[in-house]
Amino acid sequence: MGRHFVPENIGFKKGPTRLNMKRTILRCLPCAFLLIGTFSLTAFAQATKFMTVDEIRPGMKGYGKTVFQGTKIEQFDVELLGVLKNFAPKQDMILARLSGGPLARTGVIAGMSGSPVYIDGKLIGAVAFSFPYATEPIAGIQPIQQMLDVLAQKNVTPPQRIAQASAEPSGSGGALVSESPTAFIYNQFQKLAEGTPLHQLLLPQSLLSSSPFGTSAPSAASLTRIQTPLFVSGATSAALQQFLPFFSAFGFTPVQGGGGGSAQNLAGATPSKIEPGSSINVELIRGDISWSANGTATYVDGDKVYAFGHPNLMAGPTDVPMSAGYVISLLPNLQNSFKLAVPLDVVGSFQQDRSTGIAGTVGATSKMIPVNLTLHSSLNTVNNYKFEVAADRFLTPPLMNFIVFNAITASERALGEMTVYVSGQIRLKNLEPVNIGNVFSSDMNGPVMASLAAVSPLQYLLMAGYDGVVVEGINLEITSLDRKTNAQLDRISVNKAEVTPGETVTLTAHLRTTSGETVIEQYPVKIPAGLPAGPVQLVVGDGTTVTSIDIRRGPSGVPAGIKQVINELNKLRKNDRLYIKVVSSEPGVVIGGEEFPSLPPSMAALINSDRSSSRSVSGLPKSTVQEYELPQSKYVIQGQRVLNLTVKPIG
Questions:
Q1: What is this structure's pTM?
Q2: Residue 4 class from Cβ within 10 Å (0-12 exposed, 13-18 middle, 19+ buried)?
């Protein structure tokens, strides 16, 4: 039997007497005072590390820390001139005159970004801004509290970047683009032909417009962030010249020379720890090409490192390697003196790239994308390149473009007659790979077109905003010829004008080469079974022209998922072969980027009416019953022709 809930069943325990309570409190008081004292000392110590902007007074003197040679941290003198209130929205800037060391002859040095400044032993901020062409080293100091407020964020969600995206294999995320993969890549080449600069094709306009530098030189009267030395090794002068607008937009000063390989004779030079004033590098490309941005560590809190005092790329959440830097020399310059530095060993990873600086973790690792590139040159030589590229949704495409353009111009001319074949594969985690393939032949822009062809599928894949896109590696193969291989499609014919569904006819194509020679190629073409009696068209053309026909007839819609994106990217047409579209006069529809022919009249009327609205579904007045890809030609073909045939009734 259970006990009933009645007063008699409730037990009462005798509580402590008032005397016992007093004794307990007296015993606990020493521990409480000790804890309170410890907390107060900790809070006081934390508070006394920094000096706030409100405490700054003109005439205060202190010192800064940076590396002028090797890895040795040296001090320079600082005299505060005042505070520029609201220099940026809700942000102040401390103005100071620097002196000591080499600064009298160099001015503020590119590579000093992040150099910590102390007044009375308290950290006030990082050297981060300067006046271009100034005759004395006047610098803007980013207040340390502004750096910590933006960068010291707890539980920051990892970026949905290429190497750290959601593992959801269905790729159900919403797209950030408004056109299909086919339309996007076609429009990229159209814009290039119209003269749009390459950097505008590779980067979102929002990133370019947010740059304080733009593509022109900053005003001498403007306090601008210190240019960041970008040390580039393994690069051709043509590649550096081609990417100057990209460097300028992000405040980089490209310096040809120091990469990771340059530091091989500096074994043991890596400092034992990163501390305020240490030279520090952000690595964007490693391997046979190196891109490494150099600056200075501002503040170290345990394994957390804060640096630069201004953005590197303004990428927000990021994941790029952090390496120690070795300053080989200073190069004084009237316009912009800079440190010539090379990266040493990787010591951690940067995870934040914000308006007031960059921040990372010592000991963390960054997952970069391995890239293998094989180039077959016009001189019958084969060059194999290996790289690792930063995994970033917006940054990876321009970095890859530089790699491809640089590899081509390393052994081939940048202008003049050229034919370039591009093939390769983008390997994705838990998804089918994306195949890359095309060929270009022209008098100019051959390397630009080839590099854009290699990168555009990757660019769409990353910028579309689908979840589950994890790039595990990229393989590319490029073959270059130092002559044009163009041919114009003059005319076409078939061996009969009336055809029967299911039968095979012979298509004859007359191609005219650049030398005036006529080349005749013949292909068997099967008339699709099930075609109704009546007129039908054979549209024959090169890959680009046939694609333009599809785009002109109406939007095909954005694919609904990443698998449809991959499927469409793998069906991109090529320029070295002909395509045949068997076109019926009956209406069709495009669903999720894929065309379906011969709709019932009632469904076609509904899709083409105002009652139907979907960006992934669109109606077509005519439908492609069948499309054939003819065998590869030895020519880059241009042109399009149409044949009208009659389908005879069966029986």
A1: 0.81
A2: exposed
